Amino acid sequence: MDQLKQFWSRYWGVLLLLVIWQSLITMNNLNTIVAPSPHAVVLALVNEAEFFAAEASRTALTATGGLALGLILGFTMACLSWAAPAMSGLLTPVALLIRSIPIVAFVPIIVRIAGYGTHTVLIVTTFLSFFPCYVFALSGFQEVAQIRKDVCTSLGCSTRGFNGWRFFRYVAMPSAVPNILTALRLLAPMAILVALVAEFLIGSDGLGYVMIRARSDMQMDKSWAAALLASALSIMFFVIFSWLDTKYRKNWQT
Known about the structure:
Layout: H1 2-28, H2 38-47, H3 49-83, H4 85-100, H5 103-114, H6 118-142, H7 146-154, H8 165-202, H9 207-216, H10 220-249
């Protein structure tokens, strides 16, 4: 009984949304082509479970790969900006320019350069993921407590530039870990969204491609099923990286 109350208190909003969805379909007698019912969407997922699992795996792997590469690229650029302040003046405007371009305008540019395929979706996800990682990592490097800088300076350790690599390794980098964990937590669901939109626009594979292909074939239950599965993936990514953030942040708090 307690478990039922806990489930209801946590997920009553989702259940209410499903009831409203089903009620609107029933009262307006809408055709499946216009808007499928929750039952039709779940039935499409169950009937083609293996197909949806394979496509969801492709989207999840692409998003994970883009997130990892974006983290590496952003962290590397943040390291360069910290070591050489002049690099920050060069890298920050470029990073900001890339991040400010809408994804629907950014995808055709990458397609013209890299062509069609899953690798293009990976490139798009990487470029749109690296900027938050860059900003969060660089702010973490720069937010080292002043008392720690004073201690290192008194010991003859440089706290800036390429000569301060020891300070960077043992002080600045650990202080940036909580910021990086926050960036991953925020970027995880966005990586799924970016990969989905890129697949939708490029038309290669993955859940985004399933959505556009099913819509063109008037299989709206299948299209909505892919969208529902993508939402579940975003939530799962957010929960996983939120758990990692909570678990490991306390080990790196300054």
